[in-house]
Amino acid sequence: MITKEEVFLAYQLFLGRDPENAIVIDQLIAEIENLSDLRKKLVVFPEFIQKLKILPHPKLTMLAPPMQIDLGLSNDHLDQLLERTALQWKSLGISKPYWSVLTNPGYLNENIEQNKEAFYQSGHLELSNLFAALQRSNVSIQPSFKCLEFGCGVGRVTGALANHFASVIGVDVSHEHLQLAESYIQEQGMANVELAHLTNLQELAQLGNFDFLYSQIVFQHNPPPVTKYILEQLLVQLNPNGLAYFQIPTYKIGYSFSIEQYLNSDDMPEMEMHYLPQDQLFSMIAKANCTILEIREDTAIGPSLSAISNTILLKKNIDSAPPLQ
Predict the structure, then answer these.
(1) Which residue spans of the chain are classified as CATH 3.40.50.150?
(2) pTM of the shown model
(3) Which one of 163, 164, 176, 182 has the largest count of C-beta atoms within 10 Å of its C-beta?
(4) What is the mean pLDDT of residues 225-233?
């Protein structure tokens, strides 16, 4: 584990300044295991990149081949794919729920009590990216907005969202994660938050309409057909003039997905990483009558020479069909 002195020295070396406050220091100490990991985190800070006027890693080659992705679905396939994902996250929700949200040793069960405040504070800090994107696109959250957070986990960002929206509904496939989220929301006395356990994809339609969709480091853990179906359903339920801000990996060299092979495989890694091609993403956004306001490459999956993750801000066009009843 790193020390406060090491955090101060690293900030001075890479950024030429002290850390913002004690909360940032405590969060880094909780998240970072050694100096090598601290260096990797600081060199992808936009502030550091701007100082050096270089990119953190070379751009993916323009000659990269297409991915082979099977998106042909039946309802049975959808249910089976979601069930497999839910089983993985049920296991993580029992063994290491906080670590499964942010994979840092400080958030393992044996360390979480001394680091829980920093864990939840990171949810507030994460929203700074959202508000910067809103400002760049000259749009804002209205006081009456209802927010749907897909993949709320243990409520790390849910509580922060509740400070900015009239109401928030947090959705997750893991009952175990939601139980911890419920405890946190009750401890914080947040009366404008509702939590929903998604047991099958048909339940998405029962969530109703909303004005803002938020999802970070979630879609990447779902097979491409499931991610496509979820986004299609959620964008349909986004109200006209509503906004969506979500992160999704869209490319990796050598990645492929076969529904049949996936469902017949006994190989179940602790945490999966999946990719949905950009053409599929753009097609469903257009079909839902939404306009992309901003799309940016992000580091949500870590710096990579072979993969791309994108964060997207979009707006539902005002001439969209009336909301579902």
Answers:
(1) 70-316
(2) 0.81
(3) 176
(4) 94
